């Protein structure tokens, strides 16, 4: 059989050696192998949210900040963000990522306005931008219940997956359909009630795939303050932070491999082995 | 090319032309040359429309073959349907293979964004209709009120022309919205179109928020759960009360979240948002009967505003008011319908409502069971304020059943919540627990504090509840006279509220206490 007979998207006969992986996984995956001694250095985490108050004691400095706004023609445009956080939510998420991965880069893409809400078009533009920037991890502590946006969000989630951009998305706090957390190409996160920020549980009954700390979490708030909050919004950056640690130590991992690693190191999976 | 037909739509031909033009424009980018033909007529389609056959398909194929690279040719039948919406140039009739006579063909140049309607022909007659439009406009201006003009007529009878002529004679600011014939999520399309053209929002923050949502400005939500606990105390407790009156539904949650956002920097704006949310909620009736309006009056308002309720919250509001009025059978019908509707929606069960209904009916075993589900559900959803408040309610029902050991941890939980409701309700439960243990002084102190706090609100049923708990604490200490006095006051609140269900529960207890019966 010649190479011309090979179906599209297939592996040519002599190409197997070309896709050898850079590092091999040990027989037993441990949390120590996955992210032990990692500080998140080199990992680029995007907070797709309400902006981030940089310089906050719990957040520190940022590598970049942009805001997506509606131009005069109604089309979204991306500009440097000089305003910071407009409703505290992004700062809270960034603080959690920073706490887990102190040396990770934090980039802010502001798509939410005051009142913890934003437009669908702006979200789509912000997510496209984040994917184009090739961030390692995008924290999405937000969702839309509007079905109109589901198809495009789904395409973007898949595009991110293929471009090695890991989307970590909050499940809704209410029993309602919303997106993008329901798509299998993202890592979806709900809350558990434990206090350990590094504890994850794998959910064998998706759509929610992982549970992380999200109840009564002390988070960064504006003006350098902290408050105690509950919500899947705050479970999500715990997973994003752990992903940053893993990516920092194993930059070659694809989103599929990274998700597999989270599964293998989840409390209910790792402790059973 | 031919246009796929799923079901016939009024603008199929126009959509086919638009598709053709967009494809033609995409050819260079794709690095391909393409020719397109479009025709209109009856065709037969096979399974899942993989196959289409008919004369229009053949003509479209021949037009495509006759087209130059980068050209779109359309047939006469198509042009007839899109005239006014496209720019097209007539070509000489083409001799097409398989057709015995030459076929008229047109080169499609472009599709206009908004189809133009020709108004060149003179407008004749219709004086009566025109004067009706003019009169409606005059009334609207003179009396500053809305006027509705409905125009009904067969296709091509001239409805659009009449509108155009009518408007041209009065020269108002005109905005328009269309109902789309197909598509998803298009219910409010015309409203959205109109609002976009008006480019303004109403002063009522609640209405403005709803409209922003329609305009896609609030399509995305941050997934913060409930109120930030250290901020909940900053929004005044009456705002929280209003929030709960509104049923804790998402839009009202959003109002309160908005209010919190503004609370530090713009407290007046925050208050206005909460007021609007509360007023909207009150307009729907005094739902669980905690406020000052008598239950029968609230029920009448509901009947007027919503004579045929079908949504769960509306049904449950009705059920609670009916239960308060002692009309349990009717209440049960409504709550049954609500439960059924919730099942259809696959939504959570609103256990709180069912718990309160059963408590009103005096079935505290069932109320405690439902109440436990509600508290657990709020905990799962991160609604800490609600969890704490209903923990105390559950605690009261457990006290009524003599299950004080189970009630105490609920009082402790409720105590940790920063809300005014929790302030009095945890004291009520803890007071009963102290009284049960014989710690009378502490019990009376807490029970009296609870009454004093709830007296500062306008919530008659809750005042009655706190007075009942004080009465039980006093009865446990053998202060029968004071206990009876407290129960009489409770009765007065329940009667004022027309909460006949609680009146019926309290009267026999008052008689027992007067007769010197132990608690």
Care to give the gist of this entry?
The complex is a heterodimer of chains A (273) and B (519). Helix content of chain A is 28%, strand content 21%.
Provide structural commentary.
Helices cover 28% and strands 21% of the residues of chain A. Chain A has seven helices and 13 strands. Chain A has a nine-stranded mixed β-sheet, with helices on both faces. Chain A has a two-stranded antiparallel ribbon with strand order 12-13. In chain A, strand 12 and strand 13 form a beta hairpin. In chain A, helix 2 packs parallel to helix 5 (232-249) and helix 3 runs parallel beside helix 4 (150-162). The longest helix of chain A is centred in the last third of the chain and has 18 residues, at 232-249. The mean pLDDT of chain A is 91. Chain B is an alpha+beta fold and 519 residues long. Classes of the chains: A alpha/beta (273), B alpha+beta (519). Chains A and B meet through strand 5, helix 3, strand 7, strand 13 and helix 5 of A and strand 7, helix 8 and helix 10 of B.
Contiguous helical run count of chain B: 23
Query: Assembly state here?
Result: heterodimer
Question: How many extended strands of chain A?
Answer: 13
Radius of gyration of chain A: 19 Å
The largest chain-to-chain contact, stated as pair and per-chain residue counts, equals: A-B, 48 and 32 residues
Helix-strand topology string of chain A: HEEEHEEHEEHEEEEEEHHH
SSE pattern of chain B: HEEEHEHEEHHHHEHHHHHHHHHHHHHHHH
What would the principal axes of the Cα set say about the shape of chain B?
A: elongated
Write out the strand line-up for the largest beta sheet of chain A, numbering strands in chain order: 3-2-4-1-6-8-9-11-10
Helicity level of chain A, as a percent range?
A: 25-40%
Range of strand content of chain A = 15-25%
Gap between N and C termini of chain B: 87 Å
Low-confidence stretches of chain B: 227-258, 260-264, 277-287
Q: What is the distance, rounded to the nearest whole angstrom, between the alpha carbons of the first and last residues of chain A? A: 44 Å
In percent, how helical is the residue content of chain B? 55-70%
Radius of gyration of chain B: 34 Å
- What is the count of helical runs of chain A? 7
**Which class do the helix and strand fractions of chain B yield?**
alpha+beta
Instruction: Count the beta strands of chain B.
Output: 7
